[in-house]
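Consider the following input, taken from an annotated entry for Putative carboxylesterase (Rosa chinensis).
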Amino acid sequence: MGSSEVSLEVPPYARVLKDGTIERLAGTQVVPAGLDPQTGVLSKDIVIFPQTGVSARLYRPNITATDQKRPLIVYYHGGAFCIASAADPLYHNCLNMLVAEARAIAVSVNYRLAPEHPLPIAYEDSWAVLQWVFGGEDRDDWVKDQVDFERVFLVGDSAGANIAHHLALRVKKSDPDPKLKIAGIGLIHPYFWGKDPIGREVADSFRKSMVDTWWNFVCPSEKGGDDPLINPFLDGAPGLEGLACGKVLVLVAGNDILRDRGRLYYDEMVKSNWAGSKELIETEGEDHVFHIFNPNCEKAKSLIKHLGSFINQN
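Applying the prediction step yields:
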């Protein structure tokens, strides 16, 4: 057996072999950028930071009036911080649909993955791309020339929603008069967690233990599920009143083990001193990121429509 022996299983995402090799079991497929015939959306890949390899896939809607400034979606993909990419066919399809619906430019961020790049590297990469969006000297023309920087939205699903939350806090903390202005954040089935089970986690010890394993795999912290990166509701974690944006949309799925954390996030926001507008939408009868896996169902189309109107409403 030798080096092919498994030392750690992280179902359904990955396994670690005795020799340290990481085998990813999902999220490894890629599709090229280009013109999407279904939506007319055009995309291209760019390397933003050659020294780290951090890249992004840029999207532009099918528009004729190029002089009109458009909202920008900075998108962070999910995958428990350890799988998937902006070139994943499921994410590529989702971004094409979202960009067409929102009539927005999008930057879909390829942050480096754990465990080879343990947290907080994903947050640092995502923060660096956000700074590039607002002021990088080598910004792509799609960003520099076509974006209305008063309408920049951070959107992500699962781990990507967690990233969007932390960056919206960091904008406020980084500068009392922020040059980085975030109009809103869209959190799709956000990946928040905690050591002590709440809601349906109490009765579902199997899925509770599975999510515990995911987090311990990507974050080398003695605090486990009570690290403030994954549990924003602890005493001492940054308060939600520090979110540097004007509005927040929280989307949860009725059958998702993470649902109760998303609802708690919304409830805590309502109780906090944060003054922006907030909305919670629950999709009944669906599981985690169902819209990625089943994008053509009516509920997925409805989710994308909600995001599009969130981005375009004043």
